[in-house]
């Protein structure tokens, strides 16, 4: 596990973006796993900047997103499909048909999960971007006695819904269910890039990276992966030796 701590958020964003752009330059048909939330926005901004400055093309790239809310349409401003269009896809030259997110509006969610997992099996992810939830979740894999390996539907914890409420008018508007890649799906990526910022994440960063490997802290399973790059700001990494 390669852990890097940055004094400035901009430096973290640039480093992460350069990892993805370098991969695309070396492997134009790369498969990228993408995340949403507040942390990746600066990273996507830097990817867009590098795309324009270096004329790097995403024409042959394929992307898979970690998750999507159930019952939220792609044109809804709170959907992750909308987020990705706003913050990345509409600013680079990636074909719409090469971008994939779970369909939270599918009539049969279990069938949708199976379909998405089949796609992931057919096109293994080269580099997966992750954030980290306050309770240790990655994707929407919440702490539990047992974790699902493949793509599945999950009931979001109260803590996760409260953390995401800042993006909605009220807590009641936050969806209660989502479709997410499973931890097994995530761990199949050849490289995992975990980006975390903020003092409020310091304790869970320490637990995830140095504590026992347990399903009660889903991110701790990243310790079993052969190639994880951890990017932290100074506050998020303050409890690490």
| CATH hierarchy: architecture | 3-Layer(aba) Sandwich
Gyration radius (Cα, Å) is: 17 Å
Enumerate how many helices there are, as a single number. 7
Q: Report the major sheet.
A: 7 strands, parallel
Helix and strand composition category: alpha/beta
Number of separate domains: 1
Tell me the overall shape.
globular
Strand content: 15-25%
Order of helices and strands: EHEHEEHEHEEHEHEHE
Relative helix content? 25-40%
Q: Care to count the β-strands?
A: 10
CATH class: Alpha Beta
User: What integer is the average pLDDT?
Assistant: 95
Major beta sheet, strand line-up:
1-10-9-6-2-3-5
Quick tags:
single chain; 241 residues; alpha/beta; Rossmann fold; 7-stranded parallel sheet
Report on this structure.
This protein has 241 residues and is α/β, with parallel strands linked by helices. It is 32% helix and 17% strand. The chain is built from seven helices and ten strands. Strand 9 (191-196), helix 7 (202-210) and strand 10 (228-233) form a beta-alpha-beta unit. Helix 1 crosses helix 2. The model has no long low-confidence stretch (mean pLDDT 95).
Set down the secondary structure blueprint.
Blueprint: E1 2-6, H1 9-26, E2 31-34, H2 39-54, E3 62-65, E4 67-69, H3 80-87, E5 99-100, H4 109-122, E6 127-130, E7 152-155, H5 158-164, E8 177-180, H6 183-187, E9 191-196, H7 202-210, E10 228-233
Parallel strand pairs: 1-10, 2-3, 2-6, 3-5, 6-9, 9-10
Antiparallel strand pairs: 4-8, 7-8
Helix pairs in contact: 1-2
Short description:
The protein is an alpha/beta fold. The chain has 7 helices and 10 strands.
